[in-house]
Amino acid sequence: MKIVIIGNGIGGITAARNIRKQSDHEILVISAESDYFFSRTALMYVYMGQMKFEHTQPYENWFWEKNRISLLNAYVKSVDFEKQTLHTANGQKISYDKLIIATGSVPKKIGLSGEGLKGVQSLYSKQDLELLEQNSGDVKEAVIVGGGLIGIELAEMLRSRNIKVSILSRENAYWNSVLPQEEAQMISRHIAEHHINLIANTELGKILDDGSGSVKGIITKKGAEIPCQLLLISIGVQPNINFLKNSALAINKGVLVNEFLETNITNVYALGDCAEFENPKLLHPPIEQLWYTAQMQGEALANTICGHRQTYRRGVWFNSAKFLDIEYQTYGCMFKQPLADEETFYWEHSSGRKAFRANFEKESGALRGFNFLGIRFNHPVANRWISEKRNIGLCIAELKKGVFDAEFSKQHHRKIADEFFRQFPAYAKTQKTNKLKFWM
Amino acid sequence: MKLVKNIGLAVFLCCFAIFLCLPFMGTYRLTSQQFESVVSDSAHRAALAPNMQAMFDKSYANNFNFLADYGQALDKTNQQFKDKEAWVKVIHTDYALPLAKISARGFVKEHIQTLFYICFIISSLGGLIYFIADLFLQKKGDTQHKQVFKSGITNRGISAIVFAVFLIAFYILLYQAPAYLSNWVLMVDPLSIKLTGSQASQWFLYGFMYCLVMLVMGLKMLIKHRHSNYQLVRTVSVIFFQVAFAFMIPNILTLLQLPSADLKNIWPLDYTFFFDYHLNDLLSAGLLGYWMLGWGIFLIVVGVPVMVYFFGKRWYCSWVCGCGGLAETFGDPFRHLSDKSIKSWKIERYLVHGVLLFAVVMTVAVLYTFFTGSSTLLGINTYGIRQVYAFAIGFIFAGAVGTGFYPLMGNRVWCRFGCPLAAYLGIVQRFKSRYRITTNGGQCISCGNCSTYCEMGIDVRAYAQRGENIIRASCVGCGICAEVCPRGVLKLENGPENNRFENQLNLIRAKNEV
Ligand SMILES: Cc1cc2nc3c(=O)[nH]c(=O)nc-3n(C[C@H](O)[C@H](O)[C@H](O)COP(=O)(O)OP(=O)(O)OC[C@H]3O[C@@H](n4cnc5c(N)ncnc54)[C@H](O)[C@@H]3O)c2cc1C
Ligand code: SF4
């Protein structure tokens, strides 16, 4: 059987590797971006000179041939689902028995005139990074539109070259669409410490041309003018499926799939950033644009294709990021506001660089999730506690079990517990008394 | 602050330039009295003197001519012995360095103290200022290594090659022709006399410079990692063991005319431990000598396995060891240059275990000779094996390549490919230890920071992205992977052995229905 995968990102490659582990099927991975799989998440480090591009490649180049995974650097122009054939931009025809669409995302556009000017761009692909390298030559000031995960990475990148950076954010604090107010405020303060100008409650109004086809500044919707020689649009991404439009494949924003990652066409599957769930899990987004989810989907789909048909179940939600110097880990479904049946507890360290939040069900005290800023926490522990619906009192009392900070680090679990039981004395009773031994 | 930093650098560079000029300076004139005071062995004196008559009271414009003449005189003397087949009389003692030191005239000799301050103290202060400025320039908690691949010295540029050549040349001279460095040794004479009661040898100079470099570069580590207690404690520990155990204690023991010993140096890294002269030294030194012998053997038999069982090999390699200490301080800026390929891992395993085997065979042979008095074992001369080991491993591998290649192959070339003690510690760590680097469930984003900054060339990411804990013989537990990881995925820890190999991804994956 010949399995063709479009896209050599984490989704496509995880599927390919896991299919190879379980079977002898012929596997071909096609991508127009790079010869070999690389880690998109590390692009920023290449720009900052912390790594070379080759370091972003998780496997050595001989790996693919040794594991009989064929690679092809080509752009797929269209798919003939009837004849089970792909057409590449350079006229090649490639047939398949099973097709996996793992084409990832493209950055969203704002839709203003001037987005085509030199010095206006987004960051998603390797090519974008190369363009950014060219564009940031003698830039003094840059504006980033969108205060999200990629926006802050961009800001850090540019700051490493001493470029003056402003971020336009629609919300009133950094990433306030996802982070609760306290966390968003804390990160906003940290952003200011790094001499990055976060302009809240502001949207892009107009892009200014310098007369020679390059950007020279912007005007916000409120009318303020900000000069810049580089304008970065990072207002999110959307599925990269333009080449599939007007075909028999059912698509909405992304390629529609069921919980088996199957599309409406037999033998055609989609996963990763480009897939959209017809019936998303409660509280989960229909399109999951994460490294982790693409990886898990790849594993699940490989099982299905190799004859162990199984649904993709992502388990307890988790994610992580790093905002300049502050790491962020989140476990469970943590929203900007606690849900109606939830109680929330927030603790912040006096340094303003560490914070902790726990949400739990009001009635039963069952743990719903954690947010950690500047504190590392053990994923399996959080996962177990949340899926067991463990009582919050117990979790807080045993927080130490999950602390994942480096040895000899200052520990905060005691202060967190004291504060929690002060605010929620009712849970003090549920604490177990068995103390942890020092060697545990 | 940038300016202050640059001033610090400029001060250092000026002092360093002066330091580099010194070996080429001064004139030389040897008197026969000086000759007699240096060559203490009367037989040597009698044999050498006739061939050296022409040198006495002759003025030399530089060290090189002087040493060339001495070399000729020595060769001539030894040739005469060889012609007569008087092998035992051949002179192996190195008189070149003390002769060069004593016959030096002129600027250097007259300004020893001043030059000592310039070359060692002021240059160090320059370095310290350069790094202390980072307290203000570099934010606390910045775990990143920005620009590392953009600067020539840390990215195998021309400056890195020049620096490597300098280091290699330094090691070659230090081991093979220290007399050329006589002016450097002269500068530390006063200090040596204070500390040990005798004139400095090239090894005193080396030990002193080693400590100084570790102190200055150690301070840089402390500043860079001031947010991380693990790094702070570990760095203070390696500096302490170098300065106290490798430098001060042995020198003070020498002053007290006791057998000097680096009490933290363990066989087979300390490959001379079982050499006849060393054993005889210890056995003739009374209780202290016996204790030192016992301590050395205790470390090998009990200390290493027990400590590695509880803490991993890091207790030695990145907390105590001198080679490790230099690598973690002076070598830190080059840590990312280690090769991460599977091929180099393969080479590493052959080489490092090969050296361990070599060390064991050599030591068995040496001990055989010690106990039986016979100098051949299975038809091979045990002194021959010993010499080959000392040259190939002790000098070439550990010194010239081990440190000289820092700017080209990373800071742990010796520790990774050559150190027999690391091989021994590693075997225990791999198979019987509570130490591991735990991977945090599914949080890895395969970015590769951890692998890039692993000085031992471990492809940390290969484990982390599969949810596997990192359990590798070579891991020295420096903790930098955990620090540079932007997602908090890695944690060095000691824990129960039974779940050491547990897959962390399995712990968080939802149980799928089939
Ligand atoms: C800068 C940045 C930082 C990020 N950081 C994080 C993070 O910290 N954590 C996290 O969870 N997620 C992060 N993400 C998101 C994460 O990288 C994506 O969710 C993930 O890469 C999606 O993987 P994928 O396999 O679905 O698609 P992709 O990685 O996008 O791979 C798709 C590939 O298919 C190719 N392709 C598309 N169409 C065609 C075609 N027609 N013909 C041939 N080839 C085609 C594309 O060129 C691309 O190479 C980040 C993203 C970016 C851009
Ligand atoms: S363990 Fe951390 S540093 Fe290493 S690849 Fe994973 S996320 Fe990156």
From TrEMBL, chain A:
Pfam families registered for this protein in UniProt: Pyr_redox_2 (PF07992)
SUPFAM superfamilies from the UniProt entry: FAD/NAD(P)-binding domain
Origin superkingdom: Bacteria
Cofactor: FAD
Domain annotation FAD/NAD(P)-binding: ranges: 1-298
GO molecular function, one term: oxidoreductase activity
Matches recorded under InterPro entries: FAD-bd_OxRdtase, FAD/NAD-bd_sf, FAD/NAD-binding_dom
Record keywords: FAD, Flavoprotein
Statement: the UniProt record of this protein carries the keyword Flavoprotein: yes
Annotated transmembrane regions: none
Family: Belongs to the FAD-dependent oxidoreductase family.
UniProt name for this protein: NADH dehydrogenase
Species of the source: Pelobium manganitolerans
TrEMBL record, chain B:
Cellular-component GO terms for this entry: plasma membrane
Transmembrane stretches, start-end: 7-26, 115-137, 158-177, 203-223, 235-258, 288-311, 350-368, 388-408
Entry annotated with the keyword NADP: no
Keyword Flavoprotein found: no
Keyword list, A-Z: 4Fe-4S, Electron transport, Iron, Iron-sulfur, Membrane, Metal-binding, Transmembrane, Transmembrane helix, Transport
InterPro entries per the UniProt record, alphabetical: 4Fe4S_Fe-S-bd, 4Fe4S_Fe_S_CS, Electron_Trans/Redox
4Fe-4S ferredoxin-type domain sequence ranges: 435-463, 466-495
Pfam families: Fer4_5, Fer4_9
Entry GO MF terms: 4 iron, 4 sulfur cluster binding; metal ion binding
PANTHER family: FERREDOXIN-TYPE PROTEIN NAPH (PTHR30176)
Name of this chain's protein: FeS-binding protein
Record organism: Pelobium manganitolerans
